[in-house]
Amino acid sequence: MKVVFLVFSPSGHTLLTAQNFMNMLENKGVSCDMINITKNDNYIQKEDITHTLYSDIGEHCMLVVCAPIYAGHCEQNMLRIIHMLPKRKNGRIPAILLVTYGGVHSSVALEEMGKGIRSRGYIPIMGIKIAAEHTLTATFKKRINRQLPGEKEQQVLAEAAEIAVNVLNGKTDAVDAKKALEYAPFPKRLMFRILSQEKIHGKYKKVAINSQICNGCGQCIRACPVNMFACVDNKVQLIRNPGHCILCAECYHHCSAGAIIHPYIEVARKRLSDGFAELENPQSAVYH
Fold first, then answer.
1. Average per-residue pLDDT in the chain?
2. Which pTM does this prediction carry?
3. Residues in domain 4Fe-4S ferredoxin-type (predicted)?
4. Residue 202 has what pLDDT?
5. Residue boundaries of the structural domains of the chain
6. CA distances (Å), 23 to each of 81, 131, 155, 191, in order?
7. What's the average model confidence in pLDDT over 19-32?
């Protein structure tokens, strides 16, 4: 039996964190496998992926779901995938929820992931939040958490790995961490129940390409985690409905010609006080 990691990582921080966590488990003798859905159209673009998940995940003794946080929520693609997991009918398998975020607000992400995974017959035994560079702030006056994840985050992952192994070895019972995952203040929890990621970000999903200065380098195609771009008739074009954009700004930050028009950058600059936004304390932690 194996532990399966399910990962979505637009900027690479979630993947790096998941790999570090997986290495810790493997060093303790745990067999692991990883499914990276980033840029994978079998997951990103297909409507019904339950059969794909069933086939790819296979037999497993624990599931680790790894995603970034956007606007206080688990990123919408991973949240959709959680709700499409094959429902467990016989026996409940423990699950770990791992998020990376820019350190400003993790809010309800772990809580809503817990609800989703619980509805599929898993036991959410633990939530892990890991602070990482806030990639939206790359062009701000101050880059938030530029050097993270770092040593503190490694310590948090090591603590989580010890807990996971104890559950796998039967030394500790698999207990639902429901209350622990509801750590956000109640007013914030209530606010984010009303304000979904789409309600917060939806009207800014108008990313475009200035064809007059685009040099066709294809960096945006390679950088986009949800495959919004492609080269058509020797021109880089948007090929998906703008509503599928997740506003990660990877295209914007990788474009050498400055041809990407990204309406949310200046909005984020204001919301994050040009990089001087107040950060959570602690920024990285285990909830179980």
1. 95
2. 0.95
3. 205-234, 236-265
4. 87
5. 3-192+279-287, 207-262
6. 24, 19, 14, 37
7. 98
